[in-house]
Design goal:
This protein is 42% helix and 22% strand. The protein contains 10 helices and 10 strands. It has a 6-stranded mixed β-sheet with strand order 6-7-8-3-9-10, sandwiched between helices.
């Protein structure tokens, strides 16, 4: 690896990702390059549809890319199979989702402990770790409550505690304040900022919340799937849609339908040709 990769916790080069609605391609990311250094508190900002969530999902090994290079903690994410990605996520990345994604029948303490148990820790040790992190996010006294007994801000603090409980090197937070009122959102960002400073954990956050952007140690502006220097900049569209959205990445169902359609058209042409020769 080169020096840039050695000093980066996230290293992306020429990243392309396309979604399909039927046979209609919609490029989400095209040609994106990005480096994130260890310990950064970085915010990816942009309007809805700019590619923020897609970027985080690819970095977090939740989605694959169509092409490019994705290295996280020195590991080639795109070269991993499904089982390897699951194991990599479990031991290296903490997630904070917009919708909290807490298990409704578990208490706050059990939600945080669950990720530790998945890592192979005993229930006793997992509960001790959960208690520790719930106190770190200032809701240790609420560990016995289930998610439906907590406010939105408290649920998001549980999600942050759960993300930290696995001792990750990287935390990905996708629109973490979107479902919170402005004051609660500011408190949450202040808390995450403090945890970043105290423990040196790298944070990559997607948001269009002005308070989150203001708190960023580094602000990454995303527009139409590309990083821009200013909000006034209009990114160039993909030079070749087929390069960003290769036809061989069409969903399987659409490929089968296209194959059947092509075969029918071919047979129809042959029949017409035969009829013309006979006449």
């Amino acid at each position: 690896m080169g020096n840039n990769q050695d000093s980066s916790i996230i290293y992306l080069r020429g990243l392309h990702k396309c979604y399909w609605v039927g046979t209609m391609p919609f490029p989400a990311l095209h040609g994106l390059d990005l480096d994130i250094a260890p310990g950064e508190f970085a915010v990816v900002a942009g309007r809805s549809g700019s590619g923020k969530s897609t970027l985080l999902n690819i970095v977090g090994a939740l989605e694959s890319a169509d092409s490019g290079r994705v290295e996280v903690l020195g590991q080639d994410i795109l070269g991993m199979n499904s089982e390897q990605r699951t194991r990599f996520r479990l031991h290296n990345i903490g997630f904070v989702f917009q919708a909290y994604n807490l298990i409704r029948v578990f208490t706050a303490r059990e939600n945080v402990a669950y990720v530790c148990q998945l890592q192979g820790k005993s229930r006793k040790e997992s509960m001790e770790i959960a208690n520790h992190w719930l106190h770190e996010v200032e809701i240790g006294h609420l560990g016995y409550r289930r998610p439906d007994q907590l406010s939105g801000g408290q649920q998001q603090r549980v999600a942050v505690a759960r993300a930290l409980a696995s001792n990750p090197k990287l935390i990905l937070a996708d629109e973490p304040t979107a479902n919170l009122d402005s004051m609660t959102g500011r408190h949450l960002i202040r808390l995450m900022h403090e945890l970043n400073h105290r423990f040196g954990t790298t944070f990559l956050i997607s948001s269009h919340d002005p308070d989150v952007k203001q708190a960023a140690g580094r602000l990454i502006k995303l527009a139409d799937g590309q990083i821009v220097e200013s909000w006034e900049e209009v990114p160039e569209p993909p030079q070749s849609l087929s390069a960003s959205c290769p036809a061989n990445h069409l969903p399987l169902g659409e490929r089968v339908r296209n194959y059947i359609k092509t075969r029918k058209q071919s047979r129809a042409r042959k029949r017409r040709g035969g009829n013309q020769r006979r006449s």
